[in-house]
Amino acid sequence: MADSVRRLLGKPGAVDLRPYTKLLESIEAREPDLRELSDAELTEKATDLGNADLPYDRHDLVELCAVGREAARRTLDERPYDVQLLGVMALLDGHIAEMATGEGKTLSGALAAAGFALRGQRAHVLSVNDYLARRDAEWMAPLYDMLGVAVSWIGEESTREERRAAYSADVTYASVSELGFDVLRDRMVTDLDERVVPAPDIAIIDEADSVLVDEARVPLVLAGAAETAGADAEMAELVRRLTPGVDYEIDPEGRNVQLTDAGIDKCEQELGGVDLYDEDDTSVLPRVNLALHAHALLQRDVHYVVRDGEVRLINESRGRIALLQRWPDGLQAAVEAKEKVDVSDTGEVLDSLTVQSLVLRYPTRCGMTGTAMAVAEQLREFYELEVAVIPPNKPCIREDEGTRLYATREEKEDALAEEIAEVHATGRPVLVGTQDVAESELLAKRLTGDGLECVVLNAKNDADEAAVIAEAGTYGAITVSTQMAGRGTDIRLGGSDMADRDRVVEQGGLYVMGYGRYPSSRLDDQLRGRAGRQGDPGASVYFVSVEDDLVANNAPETRGYEAQGDGAITDDSWLRMVDHAQRVSEGKLLEVHRNTWRYNKLIDVQRSVVLEHREAVLADDLGDRQLRVDCPAHHAELVEEAGAEETARAARLITLYHLDRGWTDHNAYLAELREGIHLRFLGRRDPLDEFNADAVPAFKGFLDEARARAAETFAETEVDENGTIDVAEVGVKRPTMTWTYMVHDHPFSSALETVVGRFRGKLAGAGETA
Ligand SMILES: Nc1ncnc2c1ncn2[C@@H]1O[C@H](COP(=O)(O)OP(=O)(O)OP(=O)(O)O)[C@@H](O)[C@H]1O
Q1: 181, exposed or middle or buried, with CB in 10 Å at 0-12, 13-18, 19+?
Q2: 81 Cβ inside 6 Å of ligand 1
Q3: Domain ranges of the chain
Q4: Per-residue pLDDT reduced to its tens digit, 227-240
Q5: C-beta 105 within 6 A of ligand 1
Q6: pTM for this one?
Q7: What ipTM goes with this model?
Q8: CATH fold of 3-217+364-389
Q9: 206 in contact with ligand 1, CB cutoff 6 A
Q10: Which has more confidence, 354 or 684?
């Protein structure tokens, strides 16, 4: 057994790898025999493994890994390392395999997917973007082919037909969002044959922590016919004239903004003497608040960029443009008004699905990532997943230096720029990770000003991004990138062709510098992990200042340090404070996740009631049977005139229409309820209890109501001269499923909390005068 395997067997809290490591010798022992086989014989060996059900017993697991290894060697010219096979076995057992950057997760994932597929389970490999889905499917295709497993992929451009074909393969690669949108569209079909996504079996999630934790809260939305909400230019102008600190105050975390009394007076005056808190006209205050949020809390080039006349959001966890995302409701339009760009179309939300619910549909889920242990608790709590820590193939020799702390941002930047210049002078490649796009642009400008040429990575498309990041290990390269840009791409020392590898190795390999620590240690580790792949030399260091948001917002104390002449703070207790601040920030993120989860849980329960009913209408003619009971005479008449089949078709369409219509309306109600629920803080009641207290009765009778409406509509139907029943005549028009987008996580606790603060003030005032 390799030393590296022995080293990490007993990581506390992680899956015990011993049952897997015990098999490694047997797997290796199969190799000489398998090498003798022809390609066709090897395929046959793989196919033979399909003669039993999951899970694999020890004998078959050995065979699968041995055959998979030999097939990978022949087709990809890569013989899977022992540790990669440990990853395969962990995945087959439904775990998250933690494997460091560059350890070859793609291959482990593919062998596991093939293992599931050979046993008749359809595997969906979920990537973070379309580019990776296609790249990985095409890259692994020869391997799948030799194992007798059909593989396919889906991208944004794929047509419905292509999607259906792709999903019918044994293994399908897709981005989380494309899969989610397909599931949403499938929920609206009126005929079983229109569906594209088969029943879920296995989800293998790449970059699992990013998808399951960072993106879990993001709802994917399917919206109908477009309607344009007007731009609120008036309010955008109004808030532009307000003075921060005088007319409004921002809370220390930058998540909330509140008008002061002076601000209220100013707004009321400028709006021609309105009363913002007029109980008879509550329409103005939310408009002011939305505009104020957009103005004061959302910063251009930090939260969004303006490109080609459009506001494009920046995905915080990936630090790149999130093409498909938008803010909830009016906030998007408010930012567009602020930036004076055209207000984009929105549409009626037909249904939505969080990434978390999407993944939980799969009876078996597993995945791989470089950083899972730090969120092991969340993976267990939300997904019932355990983490298997797979040791690296070659020990990691990257040198991770301690954090360098400075008093001010300026001093931090000076120190970083100086370090970059010094390191660059030796030819050693440098990769700098920034917190946001604005930071990376500012830093790049500064470096260029200092005569240092650098490549800035942000806002490009995934493929370009991958190509650029692949060169970050080139001799003399300086690459400035936001956190996740180019994730999933290998950084080889000496450039993608490794031409200059020796020279770069001599200088110590890739040097990763963080321009500030991230809101979670996991994100720090991801950036560090870009250096030191497969036993390469490398180093990492983080530059932090007391003024950084992470420290300023989360540290208990930010004064009283002793700084040296260049602003450096070397006192240990201050350095520990940075770790502390990061832990506080992690705790807050977890709380947000938990909260969203609780809200969504109830919505999911209600949704599943509707979906189950819908299924019975689609597959089992439930609508027809109900309408036969509810409108017996009319039903009989229609059968007489148009035939039973046509009547059943009309009954199905009408029933589905009212179910879907009802769900869309209920969804809108829940969204509104959830926003408004924060007002209940007034009564110091738990908002979640309040939400449930309203949402549960609101759903009561949902199915009966839909059924009653269907009966009303059905009663009006007529048979036309062609002998068909035109349901459009009675108002049954399917919404166009025009829009798909992801709602960006609400950047603030609630837009309405601002209102709450004000109401509280008013009530207190009222109490005093009473
Ligand atoms: N067994 C192997 N033998 C030789 N090369 C391998 C082997 N497995 C993987 N590789 C190579 O290692 C590189 C990294 O593989 P891969 O991109 O799958 O890593 P990863 O773990 O997904 O990294 P990242 O975290 O950056 O996504 C690729 O160039 C791949 O071809």
Answers
A1: buried
A2: yes
A3: 3-217+364-389, 229-344, 399-577, 616-735
A4: 555 667 888 889 99
A5: yes
A6: 0.82
A7: 0.98
A8: Rossmann fold (3.40.50)
A9: no
A10: 354
